[in-house]
Amino acid sequence: MMNAEICFGLRSVDSDEFVCIDGYVVDRAVVPAYIKLKESLAKDGFSLRLESAYRNFEKQLSIWNRKASGQLKLLDAAGIPMERPEDEEQLMYAILTWSALPGASRHHLGTDLDVVDGNACPAGYEVQLTPAECDGMFAPFHQRLTELMDADKAFGFSRVFVPGRGKIQPEKWHIAHLPTSRKYLENFSIEGLRKIYEQTDIACKSALLDNLDQLAKDFIYPYFI
User: Fold this and answer.
1) How many Å apart are CA 169 and CA 129, to the nearest integer?
2) Among 133, 157, 137, 135, which residue's Cα sits nearest to residue 147?
3) If DSSP codes are grouped into helix, strand and coil, which group holds residue 170?
4) Along the 225 residues of the chain, how does pLDDT read in single tens digits?
5) CA-CA distance, 96 to 213, in Å (whole number)?
């Protein structure tokens, strides 16, 4: 199988461009901004905690295939568990509600982070990354993040999945270091992704290949910012 990361022009995660911080692999270039954002939020009583960062093609493919098979639950647009559609195309779109296309996930970049407020998590609580959490226990944290981003004081971090941009559901928890991520998006090729899917054991393959150009317009390119 081809290396899917070539779609974003990424080098091997084993290269010196990547480091581990707070238990997650990230692009080395985002670390200074991440530390500054973490320190800034700490002054307001928040504990910036990572829930996900760099994710390779194989891991994203595993998430996709497990959702397709029913091993992982599917959520509707409100974050409520839903029944698994039998129709392949409907199943594909159900997965896309909350999961990126393997090979086109911004998590492949190493510049995008899923974050929560560690201080707001009850002991033993397993974070789900849902809208209900963002509007509940993590609401003050996300409000402060919004204020910092609006004031251009988030050190280059911004939200990518926001209302009105493409068809992916808004994700307040997903932040991206745009100055670093932009350079990796230049080499993306939808035809390269098509060739990868043709050679990969991916669920909903026929639906993906038949609709790939439109999927790119709705679920990929709007988030190349």
Assistant:
1) 12
2) 157
3) coil
4) 345 455 554 445 667 889 999 999 999 999 999 999 999 999 999 999 999 999 988 999 999 999 999 999 999 888 889 999 999 999 999 999 999 999 999 999 999 999 999 999 999 999 999 999 999 999 999 999 999 999 999 999 999 999 999 999 999 999 999 999 998 888 888 999 999 999 999 999 999 999 999 999 999 999 999
5) 15
Question: Rounded to whole angstroms, how far apart are CA atoms 224 and 69?
Answer: 29
8 A C-beta contact, residue 118 and residue 48: yes
Q: How far apart are CA 166 and CA 173, in angstroms?
A: 17
Ramachandran quadrant class, 105 (left: phi over 0; alpha: psi -120 to 50; beta: rest): beta
Residue with token string 């559609």: 85
Structure tokens at 39: 């320190």
CB 175 within 8 A of CB 145: yes
DSSP H/E element including 74: strand 74-75
Reduced to 3 states, what is the DSSP secondary structure of residue 196? helix
Amino acid identity for residue 98 in this structure: W
Burial of 14 (0-12, 13-18, 19+ CB in 10 A): exposed
Helices within 23-153 (DSSP H only): 31-43, 57-69, 88-96, 131-135, 139-150
Of the CA atoms within 13 Å of residue 157, those in its CB half-sphere come to: 28
